[in-house]
Amino acid sequence: MIRILFIEDSPDDVELMLLALRRADLVVYAERVDTIEDFRLVVTAKPWDAILSDYNLVSFDAKALLKISKSIAPDMPFIVVSGTVGEESAVEMLQAGAQDFILKTSMIRLASSIQRALREAENRSARRQAEEQALQLAAVVSSSVDAILTVDSNGHILSWNNSAEKMFGYSSAEMIGNSSYLLAPPELIPEIRLRSESIFRGDEIPPFESVRIRKNGVSFPVSVTSFAVRIHDRIVAECRFFRDITERIQSQEALRLRDRAIQAATQGLLISDVTLPDNPVVFASPAFSKITGYSVDEVLGRNCRFLQGNETDPAAVARVRNAVLSSIDCKEELINYRKDGSSFWIELSISPIRDAQGKTTHFVGVQSDITARKKLEQQLNQSQKMEAIGQLAGGVAHDFNNLLTIIIGYSDMLLSKMPENDPSRELLKEIHAAGERSAGLTSQLLAFSRQQVLSPKVLIINEVVINLEKMLKRLIGEDVELSKNLQVGLWAIRIDKGQFEQVLMNLVVNARDAMPSGGSLVIRTQNVELNQEQLVDYAEASEGEFVKLSVSDSGTGMSDEIKRKIFEPFFTTKAPGKGTGLGLATVYGIVKQSGSFLNVISEIGKGTTFEIFFPRVDENISSISSKSPSKLVPGKETILIVEDEDSVRALTKRILMNYGYSVVEAANSPQVDQILARKQFSIDLLITDIVMPGMGGRAIFERVIKVFPNLPVIYVSGYNDDAVIRHGVQREEVDFLQKPFTPSTLGSKVREVLDRKRVSGW
Questions:
Q1: Which residues form the Response regulatory domain (predicted)?
Q2: For labelling, which of 155, 298, 479, 499 has a CA lying 20 to 30 Å from the CA of 692?
């Protein structure tokens, strides 16, 4: 149907024109107007295909109508149908834009004229649209950041925009007419050909990502969009858009790397949204779930305070909250709680995340599980505390040993001369026995303080355990079942046999006391190798091979608070008068002095296990031969005694003179120098205390042997913390006498050294 607007003041003439059009088999919808106002209203109210206007109108002329029509619809055909008119007027209308001028006497031409005008209008509209599209495309191609090129069916380049020149490095002169395959890696050319063939067949190819090569040979990632260029429905070229996606690929890789890093990170990562009420968590990393036991879904949307508990420091929490309110960084150490209710230490670092305007929108928190570090710190603090207590205990033991030397020595001398029926003899025996018991107490203090003199041997501790089994069973009683689990092929260790026996007995007695109603006690030995990952549980451990001794009981167990104190001297959970509090302190000292370390595993109601790790040694097993004591034969030699304690020096002199020796005494190095300067007699033996004010025993010995070469020496001390006896471990060539000593012990040692007739010093 053709929609025609008639501008005609004669309805009859309109009917004649419609009749002519119907005779030409044209279907027409028509309306008639005869005023310029109606024309303006109708021409814009409906879509029209053509306007037929009379030239001679009463109220207005056709020229004005034509001008209005072209301003509203430039491509709409405007045909003048009129009566007699001059040729000049007809030409004028055609020049003004009318498509035809038909006389009303020639209606036979009307249908063909309208059809021709409609075709021409359609062509004009199509050309105008094509021109507009061409201009738009040219602007797009010229200004596009994408490289745009067109290629023919053989892949030869037909056009090449500025962005293509910048992207690939080739000028348009270099590329137009050249093969587009020059831009692709050789291995991709078959795939590119297949895509191009599909385009020229009329198929649509979705955008894809690929790789292209610049003029300098560098390959780079691109996204490619290809489509067909058609002219009159015929595909004449392929247009390709290339976008450099290097930055996007790098960003994606950076994001993937970040995600992998977050997945692999051992620290827990949380992100909270401070713009929402209660600052909820909006992101939680897998490591956070692993540390806390909460799944990510259980965390999202919650405030992180759910991790806090009774032991969480309120002051630390307050500092974190203030940092969030102030949008500042913060780092704190505090206790959190896992999903299972167990507590653990974390180091929490939080930092604000700001938007482009600098406003804080989120907070990121990184939490590291520092439980192992805190445990090591506690163990180290405990070790340092024990070291300080040990030094004090060693000093006390040294002073007591000097006093006990006097008590035991003089009581022994009195007993040797007192008649058996003397009524005072029993009192003196009690004094002597009390001195001996006190000496045992100071011996334990020295063991705890690691200032005891040891004679380490290479041995297999399985043999010691087996030999002690009967004694241990007597110690624990019948209501405690003792069992052994001793590894076959156990490695050797170096330790003082007596000290090891003391450690084992003390641990067994401690286990017995933890089972007042009876129970089971297991002694285990095992070869173990510790690696770096296992060291976190032990404060002073190192990698290597060890022999582990374990003593386990089924007793009452211990709280963490008691566990922290059990190795402190004089600490005990027993009733007053039921224990000295030195049993485990002695174990601690012996273990440390032997270069080993220990661990305690205990839980209330589930018993206790003491683990001791002795370093493995690859040496032959020592043979332990028993020495028969030297016979107390009186002597005539001259002995130099150097001792700063007057009472101990006087006792020593008296004992030696009772055995027939000549004695020269000195309290310090100046007196020694005076004796050496006089040269009035020959000295056969030096007996010197090790630790003295001013000059120690080692230096005294060095000075004396300059005057009396090859002079034997006996070192004496209430404890040993001197370079002569390194770390309390006795060297075989050194003769040592531990205070307190008895007259017979001193006499035997002196006779043994003098009879050896060889140098025993350094």
A1: 3-119, 638-754
A2: 499
